[in-house]
Write the C-alpha cells for this entry.
Amino acid sequence: MRHLTVSGFGDFLGVHGNRLIVRNGDNVILETALSRLRTIRIDKSVSLSSNLILACAARGIRIYFLDWKGVGVVEVSGMHRHAVVGVRKSQFECLKSLQAQLLAKEIIFSKIRNQRAVLLYPEFYSCFWA
C-alpha cells in the first residue's frame, strides 16, 4: 500500500509504534506499517493525532486534506529532506573543492597508465599484423 485515502465520517487516525491505525469508534478498520506509505489523503470529517503528523513528517509521508469536491486544499509535509537530496547536494558541493580536482587528476593518470600497459603488451599488435 503506497497511498491511503480515509473518507469515513468519525474515523480516527493514530499511530502506535511504527504503525498507522485507523479506527471508527472502538473498531480498528486498518492497521499498516508507516514505512509502506507515501501519502495519506483525508476526505470528510476525520480526526488525527499530532503524534501521527510528527511520525509522517519524520518519514516524508505527505498528508493531504481534501474539500467536499475531492480537490486538495492543504498539504502537510515535513521539513526533513530525503536522503537522496542530501547526497546530491554534497556531490555538487564536492565538485568545487580541491579534493575533486585531485581525484579527477588521479583517475585520468590511472587511465593513461592502463592504456599504456595495453599498448606495450607484445601480443596486442599480433592480432593486427597476422
Summary: The first strand starts at residue 3 and ends at 6.
